[in-house]
Write a structure and sequence with these properties.
The chain is α/β, with parallel strands linked by helices. The protein contains 15 helices and five strands. The chain folds into two domains: 97 residues; 221 residues, no CATH class.
């Protein structure tokens, strides 16, 4: 008996000198209750109501073998903080009282879940009245008729991939994805293609895209506007390289003033989610999903009036284009320039 007591005293003495690491349950406080709405929006890019909407929509409950899984709200906040800052996971982990690996899993689960709702928030309107409203909004910008969208590509910086590294080096000399997007006059994105390496030209991405096939089949009534990197088509207007008449010069001015909407939309998107501006330290396929998730969140913010949006008056009646020609893009462009400019 005395020997047992002596051993217990020795064990307690050793534990006092060399305490063993014990599992610590951190207090995961709810930032939505401790921060003001503006502080929440600055940190997570959305007001509390929209964040709760995302939590309910995504249903991020995750089964785990451990006794304390990460709550859906904390997973959402950690992912939004990463998208809003582009910082290292260890910074987001320290801010929310979780581990770095938990942040990594939260970002992956969150972006995958958001991407499942792509067709719910990023789509071309098929309703005729909606298309007419979009055309009027574009017409009020610079007087270009029957525009339903503007198209362009933007480069999202990524880390050098281990496979086919040269394909991802763009014309500016850094590794990137070339992401094609189309937006309307209110900065709402109606199409996104995020799968091509940075070395691929904009014209090829559009040529291989599904949206081009829809225009070719006549499913969408209206015009796209693009820069000189695209080929002029019956449904895609590009600027003249040489303006030998005043009407062609006015055509170019109107097209450029209207097409600048896509550049402004890129700026709004990347200012809201700076991770797209600073670069993504992930593999190309994961970078593509993060980019698409940011586009969807951008549209959700517009839909819920939770971000800056451009207001367009739609009380101006735009002229209707009546064309009888050979159907080529160049001749149709000449017809628009001579008839309306």
């Amino acid at each position: 008996m005395a020997d047992i007591e002596r051993r217990l005293r020795r064990a307690r003495y050793i534990n006092e000198l060399f305490p063993m690491d014990r599992r610590v349950f951190r207090d995961r406080t709810n930032p939505l209750e401790t921060l003001s709405p503006m502080e929440i929006r600055e940190r997570y890019r959305f007001f509390p109501e929209t964040i709760l909407f995302l939590v309910n929509m995504l249903n991020l409950e995750r089964a785990t073998e451990r006794s304390c899984p990460l709550p859906p709200l904390i997973s959402t906040l950690a992912a939004l903080h990463f998208l809003a800052t582009g910082t290292h996971h260890i910074v987001t982990a320290g801010l929310h009282g979780i581990s770095r690996s938990s942040v990594s899993r939260a970002v992956k689960q969150f972006t995958d879940s958001v991407c499942l709702h792509l067709n719910d928030f990023v789509f071309f309107p098929n309703i005729e009245n909606v298309q007419r409203t979009v055309q009027k909004q574009f017409y009020n910008i610079a007087g270009f008729p029957q525009v339903v969208g503007v198209v362009d590509g933007t480069h999202i910086r990524i880390q050098a991939p281990s496979a086919n590294e040269d394909d991802y080096v763009n014309r500016k000399g850094f590794h990137s994805l070339n992401v094609q997007m189309i937006c309307d006059a209110t900065f709402r994105f109606v199409d996104v293609v995020a799968k091509w390496p940075g070395s691929v030209h904009d014209s090829r991405i559009f040529r291989e895209s599904a949206i081009r096939q829809r225009f070719e089949r006549g499913e969408i009534d209206g015009l796209l506007l693009g820069d000189s990197g695209y080929g002029c088509k019956r449904y895609l207007m590009t600027p003249y390289q040489n303006t030998d008449s005043p009407c062609k010069e006015r055509f170019n001015i109107s097209l450029c003033r209207t097409r600048v909407v896509i550049e402004q939309a890129f700026g709004v998107l990347k200012r809201r989610f700076p991770c797209l501006h600073y670069g993504l330290r992930v593999k190309p396929d994961r970078a593509a999903k993060i980019t698409v998730a940011c586009v969807i969140l951008h549209n959700i913010g517009l839909e819920r009036q939770d971000m800056f949006s451009r207001t367009c008056e739609d009380d101006t009646d735009q002229p209707h284009v009546v064309y009888e020609g050979d159907g080529s893009g160049n001749s149709y462009r000449d017809h628009i320039a001579e008839s309306f400019f």
